[in-house]
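Check the record.
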Amino acid sequence: MSRLLGSVRARATLAATLVVAVALVAAGTAVLLSLRSNLLGEAGTQAERSAREVAAELSVGTPYGELSLDVDDRPVQVVDEHGRLVAAGEDLERISGTGVDAVKPLPAATGERRGGDGDDDRDDDDRGEEYDSGESLKPGEIGERATVGDGSATIDGDTEDYRFAAVSVETRDDGRLTVYAGAPLSAEHGAVDTALTVMLIGFPVLLTVVAGVTWLVTRRALRPVEAIRREMAAITASQDLARRVPVPGTHDEVARLASTTNETLAALESSVERQRRFVADASHELRSPIASLRTQLEVAAAHPGLLDLDGAVEDTVRLQRLAADLLLLARLDAGERPADARVDLAALARAQAEGRAGVAVKAGGAVPVAGSRGQLERVLANLLDNAQRHARSAVEVTVRREGDVAVAAVADDGEGVPAADRERIFERFVRLDAARSRDDGGAGLGLAIARDVALRHGGTLTVRDAPAGGALFELRLPAA
């Protein structure tokens, strides 16, 4: 059961069925209550109409024996102001709900309406509750208000439930009389029972249809999701990141999920490929200085007099720098956040330019930024190394503030960077034709490290033509 409910399709079907079931029960209850209320109101109206017909006859002085008490086989009672039955239908055998249980008036009440002393001889058991409508009536007037209630009666052997209405009438001879008349509730019971039966039969059928339709629609809607899941499982098993999940042509959330999944796979493939290239290039770059250093050491071991100490030191320093660059790139790729120290970019530029031939710094006051001092020093050092490597005679560093942005621009008077290569030079281990020598051009990591550090600090690093005709590298960082 828990495994079944773990399915989105099953949960959606169950939720839809429960919602529809609650709605049907609420609607059915409201319909039944409304139907019963309307039918009870109609029965009360019919009972009141019958009571007023008899009251109208009493108001004009019709004798009890001539009253229309057996019309439509409905129970009718006429009670005096003391709660004694003075007239009733001939076929009435039992009655309840009117307050007067008597069904046959005493002989004294069936004679002349003016009665006499015979009324005083009635047994108290024949008296019912006194009914008073609270209205002040004149002789011959019928009360405007009527009270209704439920009860039952047996007429000619048939027992049914009735809706009773009580109407007062003021007579000239017998004073205040009350007429009780009933209307059968069989129609109300039949209609309610029929409606209830239809609901009990129809609701389960309707819920079954809703559950089935929801199950089929959900299965159809989730079919692309299942296809995406299967393809992702296949990609995981095969480790082939070049594969893509199918994108349905529905242009809905599932299609957007598939597109986003493919974009994620593409980014992951690119990242893995970049990492693979990085490892291959790093291995290649490390092989040369290590091989050179090993050769020199082997020669020195065999012939100590032939040791090229300067060359060995140079290879060791180059190897150390390359290892440091690779370590920094690894930390940047791991998402290491820079420190949040306050650094003066102008002071850093002056410090990095000090001792470099042909490098001039133009900076006014302090230009503070927030970040890692060591990493920002590395950016400026890499930019200056690159500029000096390509400059003919001079390198100019300009540090300024433009609103909320700190700008450090490094320009040289060399040949510049072709427009087609202005993004490629920021890739790792990339060296243009003019700087392909490892001794002169480095390993091709300096600009890649500079851009990665700039991005980690929320800034940018771009290149364009310098006013002197060379390259202008522009570092832009949020000012502190």
